[in-house]
Design goal:
homotrimer; alpha/beta; Udp-n-acetylmuramoylalanyl-d-glutamate--2,6- Diaminopimelate Ligase, Chain: A, domain 1; UDP N-Acetylglucosamine Acyltransferase, domain 1; 3 domains; ten-stranded parallel sheet; 6 helices; 40 strands; 17% helix; flat; disordered N terminus
Chain lengths: 368, 368, 368
């Protein structure tokens, strides 16, 4: 395990108070048992020790919770009712409506991020025309170009690059080797993981004379507050107008976001997803891993797309959408895939049978 | 929007002359209306102002063109005929056969690329045995190894790396953090976006003794002129012999090109596509986003592959190929996917019916 | 071709001895013909010259082997028996049970890797609290943080980054721009290609109050010996507990490995594959390119997954699994995809026919 710096020492009572503070009052919990026990860390149910906190957010893991040696367990009252510990063995319970969120804040409290030590490394390359706010940390090999603005408390990692006239909002962190190109803007408290590229040219060419003429990509990438962007993810600048990522969007690793896309607030995009140019994704959507979204379509708010699904048309009704060939043993797949190529013939044979037998299937069903 | 430097001031007449020059005479246009109007920029139809140029290249957007406030609109004569403006409100029209190409050249003229200021940054690391031509720009943190040759007017961005004995043709640009490994060659006027890796080892191992023996990857990557390579794209070196990307190929972000592939001239490869080793892609092909191409197959010239399609066998006939499970609401998908696993049983039931009824379907149809 | 440094000059006899040594006695071969011929290099069958070695490991290429001008050919005795050369034209043959492995070791002998020249570049940034073993090479722009341990004979490429308290085992190589984040560990003789990111945060958030609360990612990435990690591949650190890559795993480019995954020894993962968090992959598995593995599932040892297949449930039986929509001309695909949406209706029509005709299909078959 990584040598993670531990935070303040906590009893369960002080931890609960800290969680309530972090949740701005939106999370209340009822503690059953000894609030004075000390809690050092969070841990998985299977490996948790008596000084560690575990959580149960999915009824599937009730058995693991019952068997856990965690000193305290966060769960809903319903889960606690369903679990029967042998007399005298019940762990301390933290009952709340949103145990996973409670646990997340507890983990943040117990395992705080590495704290920022301000300072500009002598081997960082800062253009004299860059503007740095207070309390900034810029590490070795980082490059900050002319006109770039780095907000208060930003942390620019080793070898990260901030292009001309770009702006990084206060409290944001660029990890090692992240690249923000000219003229792009990030809001506050954003996290950009290593190797991510924000603001490369969109993919736009006009066919001409047997080849391709490049369309200049003159828009930017505009990113809201509290956005997280995964390692080696790429977000292209707009062709004309901008690519926009709204507040609170979380994007995983290896994702491609094309030029002029807009991703609505609080949407999450899992790894390896590709979003083609000018796609508009609503708010609070969830795109599963390796989903593919066609260009120039719109997906409404609160849409969930299964991993591996290609969305080829706009979606106007919130819901859960899928489209993946089910996996099976290869020989079986070969047979089914071959038959799939002949669905029309199967339909034809059904029609012929219907005609022969006189079943009245020639109405609307015939579309199928 | 990015603070893009504007080019020369233009009237529509001077702009048209510049486009004709850029198109080397291959693009002629007829202007209807006042050629003396000033044009500052290109813009989308919806947001264009009277000093901006819009374009219509798809009949689907005719309504947007009719409603646009652009000072001038590029389109075909057919589209212009189909659009009826209220008397006195017709914008200035630029009529030509290839409006998108005309527009592209106009955009290049109005929004020229940032101009190269030659110079070697003191924090670039240039090996004494590297060979730099005239007018080269090499930025902070870039590394150019022994024997590397950098052509005239090249721009090597911050933290880009050029390996030993590699060659970058005149007028090419490597953006921040791009990596060209030892012995690879790029032609003239190539663009390599941030984080792209050209010439990493191909993926080749021989099974032996319960493990894997690495096959040395001793080929290179050879790239023609006018090739564009997207952010975080990877192109592997050949195992024996080279990986070859011909002139005018355009590759988007997050693409993987395996060892010993050949991609024919003027082919375009959209984002997230994977091309496995030793695949041969023809000229003027278009591979949609997240397409997957098996290794050791050939795809003929002028083939179009839909996004998300896996090409598992060679294609010898030019055309448009697809193979994607259509997306649908998840519950419906679950039912259809389950039935898909039982196509053979459905066929068996049809056969049984045919036998019972005496329909003569037992001939060649029985393959389906 | 890359200017690859050639190794020692070899006759076929000395080469065979070297292969036997590299294979630690596990590979024996019988040579038919003149063992004194000189061999300079390995080459593809089609282009091999008389001083080059070719191989045949797949009966499909027998014709190419027969037509090859290679001075010597490695193959099985069976293949040699099947090939009939015109009298007097048989090349020298190296017969062995595992020709591809024999060839791989021969190639390693003939085309040795660039040899490491130890030394710390003055423009590498080494924290005084980093610990470097003997014979290490660290190139320009590399960054090694406090507490990092670099094993004997490691090669840290230009602009590579090694985070705090991480450990790189002896004989490992990080190529240009590779990033290993804080607290991660690599075993001995690992190879990390350019742009790979090891140890970025896993993708974990709890829903709260219309947004997302970040789960601190406090685990690490633990990598065994002899692991190879492709260009721009990303391997996330564990949330709690670690992400583990066992000995001898080979991972291609553009792969995403989520938090808390475990990949068993000697498994190979082809390019563009995505493995979601907490997936457990067995030993000696082979995941084809662009495969997608759901989170929180287990795949048993010796499983092969076809390229492009999404594995959505655990696999408990070793075997070869597939699930890809077959590609076809687009118009045909459109029709088949449309029918696929109506499989239930086709089944309903079959049922109606069966009822009408009186075929007894209403038993278990009715599930299909």
């Amino acid at each position: 395990m990584a040598a993670v710096s531990r935070g303040t020492r906590h009893t369960l009572a002080t931890l609960a108070a800290a969680v309530e503070r972090r949740g701005r009052g939106g999370l209340t919990a009822r503690i059953l048992g000894d609030q004075a026990i000390e809690i050092d860390a969070v841990a998985p149910l299977e490996s948790a020790h008596p000084r560690e906190l575990g959580f149960l957010a999915n009824a599937r893991y009730r058995n693991a919770a019952r068997a856990s040696s965690a000193g305290a367990l966060v769960m809903t009252a319903d889960d606690a009712d369903a679990l029967k510990w042998p007399a005298g063995t019940t762990p301390v319970l933290v009952l709340c409506a949103q145990p996973y969120a409670w646990f997340a804040f507890a983990a943040q409290e117990l395992q705080p991020e590495a704290s920022l030590v301000p300072g500009i490394h002598p081997r960082a390359e800062i253009d004299p025309l860059a503007i740095l706010a207070e309390g900034v940390r810029i590490e070795a090999g980082a490059v900050v170009a002319a006109g770039a603005q780095i907000g208060a408390g930003c942390w620019i990692g080793a070898r990260a690059t901030v292009g001309k006239n770009s702006r990084i909002g206060a409290g944001s962190r660029l990890f090692a080797g992240a690249t923000v190109l000219d003229g792009c803007r990030l809001g506050e408290r954003c996290i950009v993981h290593p190797g991510a590229v924000i603001g490369a040219d969109g993919f736009g060419f006009a066919s001409f004379d047997g080849g391709w003429v490049k369309i200049p990509q003159s828009g930017a990438v505009i990113i809201g507050n509290d956005v997280e962007i995964g390692a080696n993810t790429t977000i292209d600048r707009g062709t004309m107008g901008d690519t926009v990522i709204e507040d609170g969007v979380k994007i995983d690793n290896q994702v491609q976001v094309g030029h002029n896309c807009r991703i609505g607030a609080a949407t999450v995009v899992a790894g390896c997803t590709g979003i083609a140019g000018s796609a508009i994704i609503g708010r609070r959507c969830q795109l599963g891993g390796a989903a593919m979204i066609h260009g120039h379509i719109s997906i409404c708010d609160d849409t969930i797309v299964s991993g591996g699904t290609l969305i080829s048309r706009s979606i106007a009704t919130p819901g859960f959408y899928s489209g993946v060939f089910p996996f099976m043993p290869n020989r079986e797949w070969e047979r089914n895939a071959a038959l799939l190529r002949h669905l029309q013939e199967l339909r034809g044979r059904i029609r012929a049978l219907e005609a022969q037998v006189g079943v009245g299937a020639s109405g609307p069903k015939d579309d199928a």
